[in-house]
């Protein structure tokens, strides 16, 4: 049975984070607030957790799950190498609303879907999310909605869509405007904006000092 914890209350927040940490470490799903929209997540190295996440969202492996990290230093351990452009964008926008696609470290034992050797990474700017990530480590996280429906801006909206497939709901209040993160692909010769969300293409171009293309 799912449990909802009100993170505006300190006692409930403490209990909720402990419950969410235990659930994620055992391959179960949790819903957490982020600085963009609510996310549904599990421990990144739990293949069973990722499969459950895809089932809950009713989507296939062809739409792989991104990874949230709780510190800047975690980036180096998850990717094959960190190019200068990635470090520039991390310094400019992390923690925040920008996701980066990079080649993942080949030694990592995870299965996030059909990633073709890449991983999408982001460090969110939300205290509850960061505290949970600090306890669990990297988490596979996607927007807390079923495929084809709008992202959840509240824990209640997430629960209406995901129900008992999630063990723990961390209610951090409304997210405000539910705008997803922007996604920049840094695996090619030139940076490419795959999805323009909270961070604009112009802002990324300004930070890098070069033009950024947009995916068709």
From TrEMBL:
Keyword tags: ATP-binding, Cytoplasm, Nucleotide-binding, Nucleotidyltransferase, Transferase, tRNA processing
EC number(s) recorded for this UniProt protein: 2.7.7.87
Signal sequence coordinates: none
Catalytic activity reported: L-threonine + hydrogencarbonate + ATP = L-threonylcarbamoyladenylate + diphosphate + H2O
Main location: cytoplasm
PROSITE patterns per record: YRDC
Domain YrdC-like: 14-199
Pfam families: Sua5_yciO_yrdC
SUPFAM superfamilies: YrdC/RibB
Subcellular compartments: Cytoplasm
GO cellular component: cytoplasm
Any GO MF annotation of the entry: ATP binding
Broadest EC class assigned to this enzyme: transferase
GO biological process, one term: tRNA processing
Family, similarity comment: Belongs to the SUA5 family.
Descriptive protein name: L-threonylcarbamoyladenylate synthase
